[in-house]
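Supplementary Methods S3. Input chains for the assembly prediction are listed below.
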Amino acid sequence: MKRSSPGRKARIAVAGLITSVLVLTAAACGTSSATSNGKQVLTVAYGSDFVFITPQLATKWWNTVAQEFEAKYPDVTVRFTPIPGGYSDIVTKLNLLYRSPSTAPDVAELPSGQFGSWIQSGYLLPLDRYLPSAPWWKRFPVSVQQETTFNGRVYGVNHGENTNALYYNMPMFRKAGLPVPWQPKTWNDILAAARRIRATQPNVWPVWLQGGTAGGTISIQYNGGNLLLGSSNPAIFDAKTQKWVIDSPGLRETLAFYSALAKGGLQAPASQLLDPNATVNSFQLMAEQKIGIAISGNFLGSAWVPQVCGPCWPAGPRTYGVAPLPTVNGTGQPNAASSLGGWELAIGTTTPHPSLAWDFIQVAQQRVNMIDASNWAGWVPPDRDYWSDSLFANFAPPYNRFFAHLLPISQAQPNTTDFTVWGTGFNIATGAIIQDPSMSVSAAIQTMGSYISGQLISGELGSRHVVSLP
Amino acid sequence: MSTTALEATAPGAGRIEVRPRRVTSGKTISNLVLLGFGVLFAAPLLWLLFASVDSHAGATLQWPHFTLSNFSGAASSQNMQALLNSFYISLIATIISTVPAALAAYVFSRHHIPFKGPLLLFILMLAGVPVTIMIVPVYQEFTQLNYLSLVPAAIFLGVTSLPFEIWIIKNFIDAVPADLEEAARLERAKTHHVLMRVVVPVALPGIAAAAIFGFINAWGNFLIPLVLMPDPSQAPSPVALFGYFGGNGIHYGEVAAYSIIYSVPIVILYLTMSRLFAGGFAQSGAIRG
Amino acid sequence: MSAVADTGTVARGRLDLKRTAPTTNRLDRQRFHWGSVPLLAPAAVLLVVLFLAPVAYSFYLGLTNLELIGPTSRHYQFTGIDNINYLIHDVVFHQSLYLTAFFVIGSGVIGAAGIGLALALAMQKALNSARLLVGAIVMVCFMLPPITAAILWYAASTSGGSLPTLFGTSSSDFLHSAPMVVVSAANAWSVTGLAMILFAAALRNIPGEIIEAAELENSNGVQRFVRITLPLLKPTIVTTILLITLLSLANFTLVYLMTGGGPGNATMILPVYSYQQSFTFSHLAYGALVGNVMVIIATIFSALFVYFSRERRQRED
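Predicted structure tokens for the full assembly:
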């Protein structure tokens, strides 16, 4: 007696198998190819949610550039790969896209914070031979050019930069008897002002300074990184020993500032500061005038402009003034500290049409496009000719002009892969202090140091790659 | 069955005079326990309800400024396309996981195959593999084959539920008495014809349970579509929801409204199939009366 | 069927690996039928190509120095036990193991299964309306996609959320002061529904005669529960625990979206740590190794489950 003869059931199974094979094959036809309708296809990857202040502005800008480009080169069509999510999602997606020539974008919008790692992987095309045809390149500050230069070759061009400073609430300052306009000379001046605000207006949060791991290493650029740059020893990666710094007077001063805020009851609530979306939430919180003093980037001011509305707050410029963040003891020349970081445009090494890709970048870097990008993403355009251009300066007065002047003195953080490890350690330390005001600076440094030493750096145990500076 | 049996024999049951009082206090405790847990479980859901109708919704719980604009904003054409994509993906994934699982489960339950024990254990172990370690090799595989689109991603998604479903359906078929099949076979009926007519209907609750499990898994998954489907027009709802957070200026009200819209289909699915679902899972863990 | 026969079959282990078709009137040995092959083929092909191959590759990768980005992203080498050496000394990994155990056992096994059992028991005697309402609420929590659940719980547990308001001062931040407790609660909350319906169905199937017989002998509620209900529920309990363990072990999305593993490394359970190493720090190889550890843990759990099922069955035979 046969139990299961090849019968209807088996036939169904085989049919199912054939169907799935057919489905898979059908699905295979229809994804990327280098030509479409006989036209050449240029693939462009960009961050759709995080980079511009609103996703709608991102779509608007990129579509404008694509239309201009296609009008100029009718036999080419632009295909976008928008990348949703936040900073780390963009980095992860780009890392995955570059792994294979068929998915590597011809042109990509890359964050400067990780730029070194893409160069090291050999994914980016050197642009030196195209630069002579770009008059705008020479007008970039050297620090900006350096961001994309490695071993003397240039691998990307800047799309827009962020600089950072102090925002202070002018009505609150007046009420506290503090001078307006405000020009603090040392960090103690900032602490003193914060204490006055706390004494006179107990319902507001005197200082907004983020920390902790939830915001990722990118948040260091807008927050603690600025303090570190203004400290007596700003080194993150010691060039002499080629090692990551886990203890230095500069780090201690920075953490001491966090500690002073926490201990003195001067910081915003921990749950707000440690929120993964803290930066974005701050746009609204400041519009609600909950914050006395904040360290943040130029995108804040642009967010309140009516064309951007993230949120709409026309009263913004009248309420929050801006002042450069001073160095710790007021000894800087000039007495200002700001970190530098932004977004770059680069061409993939495996692109079949490098000169077309360069032409696209040229269109993106035209005056109106570059200024529009800066206005809608809250950047300073890298081209110094545009800093006083009315299209830029009048978009978010007085912020745009102010932050543009900070660009020449702003400094970038290391942009290699291992920075994420160092940055996570730093974030662990600042987060610990924010959450537990009783934690001492030494304990925080110890936590940071032991964490980084225990992680993998350059494929080896981190302890081989760290150094403490006297 | 047990409650009705108790109640049916309660009155006039002779020596058991104490029972009515015990039942009452037991009932009160039960109701209190149930409602207590109900409140606990519902508490986090409050934010979802309040924020979805609040024009000034934030990340904290607050009494809403009532508006329906969040729902209209959440129901944008892009988001609705994402919802449709979620349907396609989940449907494909469910078919891919349930049909092969049912066939394989039947074999594991009813036929003899060598090394069945270790094989089943192996499949069980697969159910505990995290997607995060599979995602990069699969991404590379799909990239080389040009499969970075909706259907292949949905197929892979289905495969991740496959081990669990085999196990659920197999346990279910185990609990079904084989006498029916034996009887059918003894009557020399066309084996497969009758097997389909006898086995499948009886096994249907278990298959339905497994299918719903697979559907829920596929509906909620965001990592696989995020990585394996670069085309934004094919993105499903979790990716669209995710997009609300990457941007600047989170619109919490719309996030809540869209979350509700996105969760409603699956709740409806459960409610309509709840009898089958509960029955199916029950079979895989106990016996039918 | 008599109650005795029912008890016998109810108590028998559910994952009955060796049981095949009834052997009552077979005299020949069971043979492998080639007709099984086409039925197994679809599942086998899909599993091998899309599941086993990546897992096997991941086991290999765990012993290399592949990075997502950087010099060894394209040309990587086999490095033998270097990664394992590192794993043994990795303090964060040890913490992660401990956190994962707390998470899986605390929130999954004890939390979700315990609450599920309590709910199922309470539903036996409660009002119909209460049963339907609470049952629906708990099932909604189970069915909510993880991203929604993460958003909800973030809003509910941070300063100003519904949980601090109900259980403490409105401004306290439960999430950041007791992160592991909150994410465990969130996991239990989202998984309890499964346990509840499994237990409810099993309880429904306990024959009324047994309970009556016990009541006739004047046993009280607790005795009835411990001596009768619990043993009859044992197969369901073991099944549920296994299911919930596996679900919780792989629950990456909820924790990642709520805390990202933080604050610091306070909620860095294994799947989140694997993701962090692979994608945030770009150490694909090391992240794969951490993931492989999870696979091994899942295997051990499954093997233990099989052992307990089989032992019970042998005792009953």
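Confidence is low (pLDDT under 50) at residues 1-19, 313-317 of chain C. The domain at 94-316 of chain C is CATH 1.10.3720.10 (MetI-like fold).
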